[in-house]
Structure formats: structure tokens, C-alpha cells
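Pilot study result, target chain (120 residues):
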Amino acid sequence: MLPRDRVVTFERAAFSAHLRPLGYVSGIARRKRSPWNAAMRSLGMLVGLLPEDLVEDHEALRNQALDAILRRAERLGADAVVGLRFHASESADGASVLVAFGEAVRLAAGLPEIGSGDRA
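Predicted structure:
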């Protein structure tokens, strides 16, 4: 799987001369709604507590979606994914759904590796 430091949010247009597009990749993560967790979060919000389990749930969803993107990009032979975006929603049954998407690219020869520490 590609390392996570090879996924960036910048658009390909800014670096198009140095990148060869391979196609768009996406990853979807879904977590069922738990009535018990929803009730506990609501109570916690009433008294001003940070719903840490909510943050942890969303972080887990983010990681699952990102891992899916990295696997798909690697199958295409990509060196990196650019233009990373996330879209979060709730399905009709109350489940949390997170979609991550971006463009898989190959780096042009002679460029430093993304994530190698060579930054301007």
C-alpha cells in the first residue's frame, strides 16, 4: 500500500507538467448508527462534554476510506494521490458514510519523491 504521506490535497493542475494522471480513485467507509451511542452523545453535549467516541468513530472512518484509496491507487501503479477530498453524509438508516476521493498519479522521472523531506 502507498504510504500516507503520498496523499496530498493540492490539485494536479498546479503540477500537471510533472504528473501523469492514472485515473480517479475513491474509498468508502460506513459505520452503522448505534442508538445507545447517539443517546450518550446527546447527553454529553447537554452538559458540555466533548463526544470523544464520536471523534474516534469519525477518525476510524477516515482511516478506512483513506486505506481504500491507497490500495486502489497502488493497483493502478500510482506514486501518489493528489486532490484528496472527503465527503461525509448520513444514510437513510442513520449510518455515517464517508467517501474519500482523489486522482492517482505517477511522478515524472527526475522529481524528488513525495514525502522524502525535500520541501521548498
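One observation from the pilot: Strands lie at 19-31, 80-90, 96-107. A full batch analysis is planned for the follow-on phase.
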